[in-house]
Amino acid sequence: MSVLVTGGAGYIGSHMTLELVDKGEQVVVLDNLVTGVRAQVSEKATFVEGDIADKDLVRDILKTHKVEAVIHFAGSVVVPESVEDPLKYYSNNTAKSRDLIESCIAVGVKQFIFSSTAAVYGVTDEASIAEDAPKDPASPYGRSKLMTEWMLADTAHAHDFRYVALRYFNVAGADPQGRSGQSTPRATHLIKRACQVALGREPYLGIFGTDFPTPDGTGVRDYIHVSDLIGAHALALAHLRGGGASNLFNCGYGRGFSVREVAKAVERAAGAPLAVKEMPRRAGDPPAIVSNPAKLKAALGWTPQHDSLDEIVASALAWERRLNSP
Cα torsion for 262, 265, 271, 272, to the nearest 10°? Predict the structure, then answer.
């Protein structure tokens, strides 16, 4: 039996693949390499280049490799781009996920872990967000992910099929062993961008919005180290394998940092000031979004190991130094 990781050449998917192969799992990675990086896929995994909407290909993979569970990362993830090109997001994140789920049902794959997002909650006045908070996404990205959650719930109701949807807050950092990290050149993640600026690869760090109703006027986010996020996925897989019921979990630390605080952390790690440029707010960006991770901790026994902004930033900067270095 094996595990299929879709989008396994991407940032989070490549870390998931490393975690699985480290544990001796048989892993198949499916990625179309539109944004993924082939070199980041562990040599111990079987790699297939292709699209999750290619039903013949996916069903052949599921059958040939006797896939027991699917961990689904493939999709588009840039909030402002989703506002500009919503149909791309409804295609990549919703329609193609529907095709993947259908292939699982057709072949008899009963366990599914979905890479969802805190963007399903939208703008909120709550100090921290629990899973039962109202869902009012502020962007097509968030809506595209929420639609997939709905499809999974309906599918689980109608079939012998169980899933866990993990709602990520802001994922950052890199593998502590230096094997993978955020490698997409045009990535919009704040910490990666700040590290690029610190190393002289970008001229300045854009601060999008300085008039939010937050302590310093900049957006506040709950940053989670990618390795802790992958730990949550591993626990979710064990939960499903043990017969656990379908469920939804937030993945964050329960505290937020502002854009300015992140910039200061990067300055500490780099030992030099960052060039910053204040800019207007971006469409679809809420002022603050912080997780309440109590359910994940109680139900799956999740205990973070890397919950320090300075550690997150240090690992991201180390990866960025390694990236494209001679």
Answer: 30
pLDDT (tens digit, 9 = 90+) per residue, 93-146?
999 999 999 999 999 999 999 999 999 998 887 879 999 999 999 899 999 999
Contact by Cβ (8 Å): 9, 31:
yes
Domains, the chain, in order of start with CATH, read: 2-172+223-251 (3.40.50.720), 190-221+254-322 (3.90.25.10)
* Residues present in the chain in total: 326
- What phi and psi, each to the nearest 5 degrees, are found at residue 111? -125, 130
Mean predicted confidence (pLDDT) in 16-28: 98
The string of pLDDT tens digits covering residues 51-85 is 999 999 999 999 999 999 999 999 999 888 999 99
Token digits for 54?
């290619």
3-class SS string, the chain: CEEEEECCCCHHHHHHHHHHHHCCCCEEEEECCCCCCHHHCCCCCEEEECCCCCHHHHHHHHHHCCEEEEEECCCCCCHHHHHHCHHHHHHHHHHHHHHHHHHHHHHCCCEEEEEEEHHHCECCCCCCECCCCCCECCCHHHHHHHHHHHHHHHHHHHCCCEEEEEEECEEECCCCCCCCCCCCCCCCCHHHHHHHHHCCCCCCEEEECCCCCCCCCCCEECEEEHHHHHHHHHHHHHHHHCCCCCEEEEECCCCCEEHHHHHHHHHHHHCCCCCEEEECCCCCCCCEECECCHHHHHHHCCCCCCCCHHHHHHHHHHHHHHCCCC
Q: Is the pLDDT of residue 326 over 60?
A: no
| Strand 220-221 versus strand 257-258 pairing type | antiparallel
Q: Residue type for 11, please?
A: Y
Residue 245 above 70 pLDDT? Answer: yes
- What residues are annotated to the active site? 141
Q: Using alpha carbons only, give the angle 154, 14, 1 rounded to the nearest 5 degrees.
A: 60
Q: What's the pLDDT at 325?
A: 63
